[in-house]
Amino acid sequence: MKQVSVLGCGWLGLPLAKSLQEKGFLIKGSTTSLEKIPVLQKSEVQPFQIELSEQAIKGEINLFLQNCELLIIDIPPKLRNNSSENFVKKIHNLIPFIENSKIEKIIFISSTSVYADDNSVVTEATKPQPNTESGKQLLTVENLLISNSNFKTTVIRFGGLIGENRHPVKFLAGRENLENPDGPINLIHQTDCIGIIETIIEQNCFNEIFNAVAPFHPTRKEYYSQKALELHLPLPKFEDAKPSVGKIISSGKVERILNYTFQEREL
Predict the structure, then answer these.
(1) Buried b (16+ CB within 10 A) or exposed e, 139-161
(2) DSSP codes of every residue in 134-185
(3) Rounded to an integer, what is the distance from CA 117 to the centroid of its chain?
(4) Which of 85, 96, 160, 213 is the most buried (most CB within 10 A)?
(5) How many Å is the Cα radius of gyration of the chain?
(6) Nearest 5 degrees, angle CA 159-CA 54-CA 48?
(7) Is the pTM of this model over 0.90?
(8) CB 155 within 8 A of CB 110
């Protein structure tokens, strides 16, 4: 029975930890919140309160990594409202602890924000050119992990995450002057996020980079207007005067290399 450490048991990490536990893995899970420790215990996930900062790591990080051969890193950069935060430094502080453990493999949860919005079709062969601070720091962290010869890293670049209690239309409903009405959506359901991660583990597919979004790309205006109607929410209003920018993320490599079939194709 394999042991896995999940760093960041949040909206995606906790359901992932539960699913892996149900499949027979021994799971250690981290949270920054003391109140969430009983939630992890209830899911039969061994809980650790761990917080990465730019100065140090708070919590029993050595015990969290002990006897585990796989580490899943699923912690967001949190740079939308505070661009001064240094996510790269946090991961830089983590790496020596990984090197001194028995971790052989890492799955790093990244984002399609590492690619520019240049109205192209994007594959893993596309050169990342992030426009945002979050995308820039994620790309730097990807390279930090991939270039380290002490472990094998697979990077998953997820699109916008949707699922239980989470859908961007709830944030966009009723808003006005939204940009890029003709830009394509690149979303992925929580179910497929977990499915792809588990498939990578099952197939031992490391030293890889995967884009992961549902193969479903209607325009933002078309998709969010329809979703608002379905959920009885106020329609979002888009600004049509400016040319739209965006990108279509291809998940062809996930389907081809992993032989993965998306469970939620039309979101």
Answers:
(1) bbbbebbbeeeebbbbbbbbbbb
(2) HHHHHHHHHHHHHT-TTSEEEEEEE-EEEBTTB-THHHHTT--SBS-TTSBP
(3) 19
(4) 213
(5) 19
(6) 75
(7) yes
(8) yes
According to DSSP, the β-strands at 152-158 and 70-73 are: unpaired
Q: Are 184 and 239 in contact (CB under 8 A)?
A: no
**Residue 19, token pair as written in the block:** 């699913």
Q: What is the DSSP letter of 80?
A: S
C-alpha 261: how far from chain center: 19
Residue 201 backbone zone (phi > 0: left; psi -120 to 50: alpha; other: beta): alpha
> In this structure, what is the dihedral angle of CA atoms 8, 12, 13, 14, given to the nearest 10 degrees?
120
148-206 pLDDT, tens digit per residue, is 999 999 999 999 999 978 999 999 999 999 999 999 999 999 999 999 999 999 999 99
